[in-house]
Amino acid sequence: MGTRPSSSRWVKLLAQAATGAFLLLPWLALAARAAEHSEEAESEHAELPNLLSIIHTLWREPIDSWLDSVNSHLPALLRIEWVNIENLFFAFLVVAILSVFAIIVTRRRELKPKNRLYVFAENAVESVYGLFSQVLGEETRKYIPLVGTLFIYILCMNLFGLIPLMKSPTSVWGINVAMAISVFFYVQWQGIVRNGVLGYIKHLIGEPRWLFFLNFPLHIIEELIKPVSLSLRLFGNILGEDTLLAVFAGLMFLIPGVVKLPLHFPFLFLALIFSTIQALIFSMLTAVYILLMLPEEGHAH
After folding, report:
1. Do 167 and 160 contact (CB within 8 A), yes or no?
2. Could you count the other beta carbons within 10 Å of the beta carbon of residue 194?
3. Predicted confidence band at 33 (pLDDT cuts at 50, 70, 90)?
4. How far, in Å, are 110, 191, 212, 223, 250 from residue 220 at the CA level?
5. In this predicted structure, what is the pLDDT of residue 74?
6. Left (φ > 0), alpha (ψ -120 to 50) or beta: where does 167 sit?
7. What is the tens place of the pLDDT at every residue in 134-151?
8. What is the mean pLDDT of residues 61-80?
């Protein structure tokens, strides 16, 4: 296992992680298009009200009128629905909060930091680094900005729905597939850069070489399935989690009497656990995909 970076470099890694989040943003534009096609499915499941859904309820007519005027100038495939705005708003809001946090924490660097926020951030980054070093080994320093950013970003998005009037952007498939597509292209790019074009093709052909007519298409299908499985796993779990909370929160209004028991409260702790697990699975599988694409000598821990 490679040596860990010095304490003075933790803040640089944190800043790189925050900057890396913005690399995901172009792909988040795909979420609006994907969410539009799944709008009917989304409207059928229960979910807790969020800030933007309340705003839409209060001013439905002017908002819908504005959207209609905008959509009249757009092709059918690019038309915007309010649910698209909700999902992208909260996804960008999480990025903004993490970026501001990183800027504040890294503003004043000290050899022996006394700021508790700085110490917390440094310990968090060190823990994430140590976690992924078990998989990536000596390659951890190179890839921690990506996999670490994914873990922190997805975890925060998962937990965002537990905050009153907020929403988990990962409960929408479009947001997740945007991140999964980013991972897919990054992994393929690393395979070409680290192996060369010929080595990348040999990797897809696999062993034994004489079965290339069978291995090559199977490996292509395998690579294409990875972003689908990544996105659907995260989407299904967080959607189910949010639906469960919404259903039990609604049941408390069926209890007779003035005092209402928050029936969904025990499930909040379960949601904390599952949100962390899903963020870990997505980011850890990303690390594994990267490791599998590296040359054989890069697999040594």
Report:
1. yes
2. 16
3. very low
4. 49, 13, 12, 5, 46
5. 85
6. beta
7. 999 989 999 999 999 999
8. 89
